[in-house]
Amino acid sequence: MEAAAAANLEDVPSVDLMTELLRRMKCSSKPDKRLILVGPPGSGKGTQSPLIKDEYCLCHLATGDMLRAAVAAKTPLGVKAKEAMDKGELVSDDLVVGIIDDALKKPSCQKGFILDGFPRTVVQAEKLDEMLEKRGAKVDKVLNFAIDDAILEERITGRWIHPSSGRTYHTKFAPPKAPGIDDVTGEPLIQRKDDTPAVLKSRLESFHRQTEPVIDYYKKKGIVANLPAEKKPEEVTSVINKALS
Q1: Is 167 among the catalytic positions?
Q2: Where in this chain does the record put each Adenylate kinase active site lid domain (predicted)?
Q3: Cβ neighbours of residue 93 under 8 Å, at least 6 residues apart?
């Protein structure tokens, strides 16, 4: 693997190499950060995580994507995960933590990570802590994207999409010229099935049930920062920067 990677560097344009080197030099002076992002669907985690990732030179660990990648690459853990999935079982917490452990060996994770969508339960949080402890590390901050369910409901259930172009509208914040109709083609708009009030309600219920205890677990360690997730993205970004400085 190492040799192959080295050979490929010859084909990388100099500009890209220099850009990456400069990025790594800039990153080397940044403090290490191990962050967990917690928040219900639509709370803005997806908007903020790339900004945090770039600012602090962290790697973004989305456990669902990592699982799929491990299965595709047929890593030892990926093979085990596939066996579980094929039987219709949930992938065990130990396996997921193992996959995170593997990912942390990559150079891009040297300065730390952003974990998104994990841990979802207190047991997962404990296993994550154990694994990090073995590496002589710990979670530095848990960013809690706190937002009222009613605001989320307005945000999410107001979203409508023009399926063929992907254009999105919002009944309140960015309405189409004519209700339910795409501005450009005049075709009808649809709502994603995840964006309907009934589905959102059940997703929020399971989020609160599972995740509130996880937030309490980290609160006892004094590392939770509550973010005003209902505010404008740039305001949330500045609160995050204060919390991480």
Answers
A1: no
A2: 159-194
A3: 121, 123, 124, 127
